[in-house]
Structure formats: structure tokens, C-alpha cells
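Entry for the shared binder. Reason: the reviewer on the internal report wants the predicted structure included alongside the sequence.
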Amino acid sequence: MHDAPHPDDSAPSPNASERLAERTQELERRLRETERLSTIGELAARIAHEIRNPLAGIAGAVQVLARDFPPGSRKAATAREILREVKRLDAFIRELLVFARPVRPVRKPVPFETLLERARSVLDEQPAFRHIAWTVDDRLAGRPLDVDPELCASVLRLLVRNAAQSQARQTEGRIGIVREARPDGGQRICIEDDGPGFPEDPTERERLFEPLHAGRSRGGGLGLAIARKIVQGHGGCIEARNRAGGGGQICIELPPGR
């Protein structure tokens, strides 16, 4: 009597093969994305260097000329407008430089309240944001974050600014910060708002985090791209969602502290 042939136990199952193929494709996609962003970063650094010095010269020249303009005159108003645009361009160049630099977090325990205070200041710095209410739901009160304090503060400021800009033309607005634990021991931080929300298409929402993506909704600059780069540098991920009751939500998922 012969034993029935047995399947080769060493052969991977169809499900395992599919998972391996999907994982390989995902790694290849990430590699292509890393190479693309590296090229963009190098180009951004060169552009910023070429533009920043002439921009400073323009600002200085306008300030000197403006001294001779009568207060309240059309020339004085034009000079102020030029300086505002120069300031806006300089802020954009600073973002370019941040995006171009590699992210190398220097981690240490940071009180969440310290980061919130710096993020909250965004609303005080812009008169157009003064109508926006601020709420915090910290379900991990007293537990620090194991992050780079400067980089993490920058992320929260960028996301708060994005949420505030989406509500700048509303008569009322709200930004809510929610922090909670993840099942793996990490932390989740969500920035909620009562603005128009994000595109319904998940692919379009993902593209909001691409540098200079000219979407129909929020994004379009470097803020969200910088935020994602810093979060990924901490081993985490970031995602934009629409809230069931209206408005948008961006959630940061951070792994357990080292």
C-alpha cells in the first residue's frame, strides 16, 4: 500500500505569495517615492539659495524708499504690499529649506502641553484666525511624547495652520486636538476642524501630502508634505480624513517610544 503524495510543505501558500507580492510592490513604491523626494529636495535647496539673497535686497531697498513716502499715500500702501509679499515668499523659502533637509530626529521625552502651547500660538499670530475656538481632549494626560521637540512642534503648527486656513472665511470656527493611546502602545494625535473637509476620493486625499500639489481643496503648498516627512522620520504615518459630522481631521500615528 502506497502513501498518498503529500503537497510540498515548503511551498508558500497562495495567500502568502499574494501578501509577499503586495509587500514587494509597496516597498518598490516607497523606494521610488524616496528617490523622487530626494531629487525634489536637492532642487529645492538650490532654488532657495538663489532666491533668498535677492529677496532680502528687495526688502531692504523698499524699506529705504518707503521712508520718503507720505503716510497714507498710495506709494506707502504699495510699499507695504510689496513687503508683505516679500515676507510671504521668504516664509515659503524657509519651508523649501526645511523640506530639502534630511529628517534626523533627536528624541527625548517632551510634555504634550509644551507642544500644544506652541501650536496654539498660530491662532494668536494671525488676526484672521482670532474667531477660531480651541479645544483639547488629552486622554493621556501627563504622559510625554518621545519625539524631537522642535520637529514635532513644527508639525503641529503646520497642521493647526492648515486647519485654521480652511476656516478663515467662516464667521465661526473650531480646532480640536485629540490625543489617545494606540493598541501597540504608541500614540495617536488628531487635529480636527469645522472647515469644508477634504476630497472624498482617498487617492486625492493622499495627494494633498505631495509637495506643491495643486488640489481643489486644502493643501497645495509644502506644509502637509513637510509634516508627513517629519512624521515618517519618527517612524510614524499621517492621514487626512473627513469627520462624520462635517469638517476635516488629520491624524498622526506614532509608534511606541524607544
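Summary line for the report: Residues 60 and 83 are 9 Å apart (CA to CA).
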